[in-house]
Design brief:
heterodimer, A: 327 residues, mainly alpha, 11 helices, 74% helix, B: 110 residues, alpha+beta, three-stranded antiparallel β-sheet, 4 helices, globular
């Protein structure tokens, strides 16, 4: 009988405590009925073979046990799944860029020249933080799934009859995507910090450990102006986020601010030396020639052109969408 | 070949739907698991054993069946199931639904 004992023990192992002995007894009695039946019909097989055949007919003990206890065989069910995905998405999109930006800046203030290292730290750190968030968020939702609260599921018979009045209004369509403005805001903050921090640190320490990238003369007029423009842009982005559509006022503000920015960038790139001469000298020392200096100059020209280009595009885009909105 | 599998799955689904009615209908006289299985299969309804026994317990927990352990006839103790009063009421309604469904399907398929 040891095969039967082993089979029943295996079923019992997967059953909840309170029903276990009862179900085990029932399966045993059924098995005995089945074996007896087989003995009458098949004369040539040995007892062990008959038992083995019977057990195989009843099938995988774990499967049998699972039919007695419809346990949840999933981590997060359909009731929570959408909420889970949406929350995860929102948290990751908020936390990761900020984390990456802060890491980048902090690493850069330690080693002002080491962009690659800073990018690596930022990306690697964000990846790790992302994994942590994913893990803990999943754990939380697994527990929620096993609590009795289930949102977004069709309610039982106890609710009042559904009427069309309960239909939610169609969500307003946004012309300006949330992700886009959030990204812009984060970038602006990041640029502000990146420019302001090394100088502030240098001034606080009195005796600068690192060589600032930007030309010190810029602080007289151009950088304060830059901060003003960037500040205004920041405010504009916040309004874009709040309003969501290219209303006439928003479009006009965007056009004016973009034009100012283009003029500023062009004037800055053409008339001013942007980079700290000490920094350039350091590059020359490092390279043994003026090659790096030229790379820096080119990079600045191209960046200025690209940035001016995005402002032009922003003007065109906002005017076009604003017209579409008024139709 | 693909169709065969599809058909088989659909037949399984159909059968799963009628199992409860079939089981309730056969338990006006008390039966133990294995005898019920044979009674059903004698009348042409083959049920997987690993489906039938859990189903019996579920119907009992819903109050449609009653059961007790007993030693009948010869030797071993067995669990005997029989339909309850509530089960009879439910079965009457189910029978009515079933006839209506069969009528509908007949018309649709003719």
């Amino acid at each position: 009988m040891s095969l039967i004992d082993r089979y029943i023990a295996e079923v019992g192992r997967h059953l909840p405590e309170k029903d276990r002995s009862d179900i085990e007894a029932e399966i045993r009695s059924t098995l005995e009925d089945m074996v007896e039946e087989r003995r009458h019909h098949a004369t040539k097989s040995t007892d062990d073979e008959i038992i083995a055949e019977t057990l195989e007919q009843l099938g995988d003990p774990q499967l049998l046990a699972s039919k007695y206890t419809p346990l949840k065989r999933y981590l997060i069910g359909p009731g929570w799944y959408d909420v889970y995905l949406k929350t995860l998405q929102r948290v990751l999109l908020t936390v990761l860029p900020i984390f990456a930006a802060v890491t980048f800046i902090l690493t850069l203030t330690e080693n002002p020249l080491d962009f690659i290292n800073a990018v690596g730290e930022a990306v690697g750190g964000a990846f790790n933080v992302g994994l942590q968030i994913l893990f803990w968020m999943t754990i939380v939702f697994v527990f929620l799934e096993r609590s009795d609260e289930v949102p977004n599921m069709p309610k039982g018979a106890d609710t009042r009859a559904w009427t069309v009045a309960q239909l939610p209004k169609l969500p307003k369509k946004r012309q300006i995507r949330v992700a886009e403005t959030v990204l812009n805001i984060v970038s602006i903050l990041f640029v502000l910090i990146w420019i302001a921090l090394p100088f502030t640190l240098a001034r606080l320490q009195g005796n600068p450990v690192s060589v600032p990238f930007l030309h010190p003369n810029l602080w007289n007029l151009w950088l304060p102006l830059f901060f003003v423009i960037l500040g205004l842009t920041l405010i504009l982005e916040v309004f874009k986020l709040k309003i969501g559509n290219w209303t006439p006022a928003l479009m006009a503000t965007n056009v004016i601010l973009s034009l100012i920015s283009i003029i500023y960038i062009a004037a800055l790139a053409i008339t001013q030396d942007l980079v700290n001469p000490n920094f350039l000298a350091m590059l020359d020392n490092a390279a043994g020639s003026s090659e790096l200096r030229e790379v820096v100059a080119w990079t600045i020209d191209i960046s200025a052109a690209v940035i001016a280009g995005t402002y032009v595009w922003s003007i065109v885009d906002s005017v076009r969408k604003s017209r579409r909105l008024s139709k | 070949m693909e169709n065969d599998e599809l058909v088989q799955n659909m037949v399984l689904e159909l059968r799963r739907g009628i199992l409860s009615i079939a089981v309730l209908s056969q338990l006006s006289r008390e039966q133990y698991g294995y005898s019920l299985l044979k009674a059903l299969s004698d009348q042409g309804l083959e049920i997987d054993q690993s489906t039938l026994y859990p189903l019996l317990r579920r119907l009992e927990s819903q109050g449609l069946l009653q059961s007790d352990w007993r030693i009948a006839d010869e030797s071993r103790p067995r669990r005997y199931y029989v339909i309850s009063t509530q089960g009879k009421a439910v079965l009457t309604k189910l029978k009515r639904e079933w006839s209506a469904m069969v009528e509908t399907m007949k018309q649709m398929l003719s």
